[in-house]
Automatic annotation (TrEMBL):
PROSITE patterns: ABC_TRANSPORTER_1, ABC_TRANSPORTER_2. This is ABC transporter ATP-binding protein. It comes from the Bacteria. It comes from Nonomuraea glycinis. Belongs to the ABC transporter superfamily. Keywords: Amino-acid transport, ATP-binding, Nucleotide-binding, Transport. It holds the Pfam family ABC_tran. PANTHER family: HIGH-AFFINITY BRANCHED-CHAIN AMINO ACID TRANSPORT ATP-BINDING PROTEIN LIVF.
Length: 235
């Protein structure tokens, strides 16, 4: 149903090409991890998938081409992007931020809010608080909650662990896994923390200077010591 198939994707900024023919697949309801060093093009890849940068090639979700559509059209088709730095509106309240996530429709919003509090009970007592007053972890949860209000078929997460304490990060990844399992949402997660991402993903793809240099099951990549050393910088 919501299989993501990326083929020969080229993208960049003006004349600067960043992605040079990226191809990978994330199975329906699976989590695909995109790993790789700074500047490899991971953020650009997510931006191309959500229509924020233009791309050439093909990006199909459930067989339907996404490339060439605006971010707004893609949001309506169920592509939710949680950018690095989270993109929450700091002066707005938690509840206002969540409701904004459902801007593409009018019905079922209150029921969806309840669904979000189920995943993130910590947000419920803070509904009337400004998003800017939340801790970093709570802000990341809010950003994820806002994306869920879209009822996404494809959830794009850019560095969710950035700046968060290890305990908070582990909790966040547990929730991402729960969302993926309960809603069958296909997820693409970009992460510097390869160990964490490999813990929740089925497949992983290593991006280097705009090209996928390695793809495999998360278990295989985690188990392969040489891969871990040469591509991911840890043993
Ligand atoms: P990081 O983890 O540091 O964010 P990344 O793998 O996500 O790295 P990108 O942010 O996609 O990498 O950047 C890839 C390349 O594109 C870099 O060389 C970067 O300088 C360039 N780049 C990123 N954003 C822009 C932009 N808005 N305009 C021009 N070049 C950009």
């Amino acid at each position: 149903m919501n299989e993501l198939v990326v083929s020969e994707l080229h993208a960049g900024y003006g004349g600067a090409q960043v992605l040079h023919g990226v191809s990978f697949t994330v199975g329906e309801g699976e989590i695909g991890a995109i790993l790789g060093p700074n500047g490899a093009g991971k953020t650009t890849l997510l931006r191309a998938l959500s229509g924020m940068v233009k791309g050439r090639g093909s990006v199909r979700l459930d067989g339907v081409e996404l490339l060439g559509s605006s971010p707004d059209t893609l949001a309506r088709r169920g592509v939710a992007h949680v950018p690095e730095g989270r993109g929450t509106f700091m002066p707005l309240t938690v509840e206002e931020n969540l409701r904004l996530g459902a801007y593409v429709r009018r019905s079922g919003v209150d029921a969806d809010l309840d669904r979000i509090y189920g995943y993130f009970p910590a947000l419920k007592p803070r509904l009337k608080q400004a998003a800017g007053s939340l801790s970093g972890g709570e802000q990341q949860m809010l950003a994820l909650g806002r994306a869920l209000m879209l009822r996404p078929r494809l959830l794009l997460l850019d560095e969710p662990s950035l700046g968060l304490a290890p305990l908070v990060t582990r909790e966040l990844f547990r929730i991402v896994r729960a969302i993926n399992e309960q809603e069958r949402t296909t997820v693409v997660v970009v992460e510097q923390n390869a160990h964490l991402a490999l813990g929740i993903a089925q497949q992983a793809h290593v991006l280097e200077t705009g090209r996928i240099v390695l793809s495999g099951t998360a278990a295989r990549i985690r188990a392969d010591e040489q891969v871990a050393q040469s591509y991911l910088g840890y043993r």
